[in-house]
Design brief:
The protein has helices spanning 15-27, 58-70, 81-97, 104-123, 166-170, 181-190, 194-197, 213-220, 224-228; strands at residues 6-10, 30-37, 75-79, 128-130, 135-139, 145-149, 172-173, 232-234, 240-243, 267-272, 277-281, 287-298, 308-313, 321-327, 331-341, 348-353, 356-367. With 369 residues, it is α/β, with parallel strands linked by helices. A hairpin with a 3-residue loop joins β14 and β15 (331-341).
Length: 369
């Protein structure tokens, strides 16, 4: 047994998770690699199903296994398609049908991937689980475990990890948090994997290989187009402006692809699934300074006092905005100092104190006070 302990490392076959596994191996951990198959593109009906990307194609499986074998540690492939599909994909579809904009990566990390890792780690008597995310985990002075932003601002993934609970965090290692992406590429090259260092990255949703969520919904919801086609675009006062293709195919803040000519730029400002109505307005109509957030997971602290100041991010690439947080019966009210644009129900709101994640939740609605 290694003096540092035994760690189960999630290896997708990409550069980040491979370097993470090799770093831990070189540091003296007893490493076991595991690659999780989450989705089968052959069942998606996509015209690009042959272009399996990311964590779910045979080349990635082989790349992960080869790195493990070459470095003398075991590697397993874990099929979690049923677990993944039952929750993540169904949630993805249900959220769009409810007029909201989901974040499947958050749902997968929170409810599937970490739980699957921990279950197998326990079975293999591993002390820790590890991933190649650009974030860090540490224990705060109050003994709670907290995620901090990755050093590389352009790669930071703390936003999609807000849902991890204390049990999961207490067992998690993220070795890449203190590095920039360019450093990881150099490490891959120095470790003898020059081709891996050049490997491209996929930013698509793993089960939507062509990055066309509208096509995915059409293929996976029977009769969807017939049910929602022909709804109305309306203005802020409810005046009909023209027909649209169905409310699930639009998102808050969308400007391109509306296929309606109004003589001026128009943005989706609201979606009503009950009436199959999509509200259009100006860019200024996207401004809101207050929102309700539900399904809260507290991380750095076990709750907050009313009026707590935080930097709140409302989407993955959001730089964040200063806000005050207030407790409600079912969640949090976040009130921004200045209006923010395109608060989308279904997306995640993540609250930061400096670089640390205080907690996060799911946006219920935005409000203009």
């Amino acid at each position: 047994m290694s003096r540092k302990g035994k760690v189960l490392v999630a290896m997708s076959g990409g550069i980040d998770s491979t370097v993470a596994a090799l770093m831990l191996h070189n540091e003296g951990y007893e490493v076991i690699g595991i690659t999780m198959k989450t989705w089968d593109y052959a069942t998606s009906g996509s015209s690009t199903s042959s272009k399996e990307t990311g964590c779910c194609n045979i080349d990635s499986f082989n790349d992960a296994r080869q790195a493990a074998v070459q470095n003398g540690f075991p590697h397993f492939i874990l099929d979690i398609r049923d677990e993944f599909g039952d929750f993540v994909v169904e949630n993805f579809v249900e959220e769009y049908l409810a007029g909201r904009t989901p974040n499947p990566c958050v749902m997968c990390n929170t409810h599937i991937k970490w739980r699957a890792l921990l279950k197998r780690a326990n079975a293999l008597e591993c002390d820790f689980i590890a991933t190649g995310h650009y974030a860090s985990v540490r224990q705060h002075t109050n003994n709670r475990f907290v995620i901090s932003k990755g050093l590389d601002d352009t790669k930071d993934q703390s936003y999609v990890l807000w849902g991890l609970d204390q049990e999961l965090l207490s067992r998690t290692i993220m070795p890449l948090g203190q590095y920039h992406k360019k450093d990881i590429r150099q490490m891959a090259h120095d470790m003898g994997y020059p081709e891996l260092a050049k490997k491209s990255e996929s930013y698509e949703i793993c089960f939507v290989p062509d990055n066309d969520y509208r096509g995915f919904l059409k293929r996976n919801v029977d009769g969807l187009e017939e049910k929602v086609n022909g709804g109305w675009f309306v203005d802020q006062q409810g005046k009909r402006l023209g027909k649209h293709k169905g409310y699930p195919f639009y998102t808050i803040g969308q400007r391109k692809g509306l296929e309606i000519a109004l003589g001026k730029p128009a943005y989706v400002t609201a979606i009503d699934p009950n009436t199959n109505t999509v509200v259009l307005g100006t860019e200024a109509d996207l401004d809101q300074n207050d929102m309700e957030v539900l399904k809260i997971n507290w991380m750095k602290y076990n709750g907050i006092e009313d009026g707590t100041e935080a930097i709140t991010k409302i989407r993955y690439k959001d730089s964040g905005a200063t806000s005050h947080l207030f407790n409600t019966e079912n969640g949090i009210r976040a009130r921004f100092y200045e209006p923010v644009k395109s608060i989308a129900p279904g997306q995640s709101a993540v609250f930061y104190e400096g670089n640390d994640v205080i907690g996060g939740g799911i946006i219920q609605r935005g409000i203009l006070l």
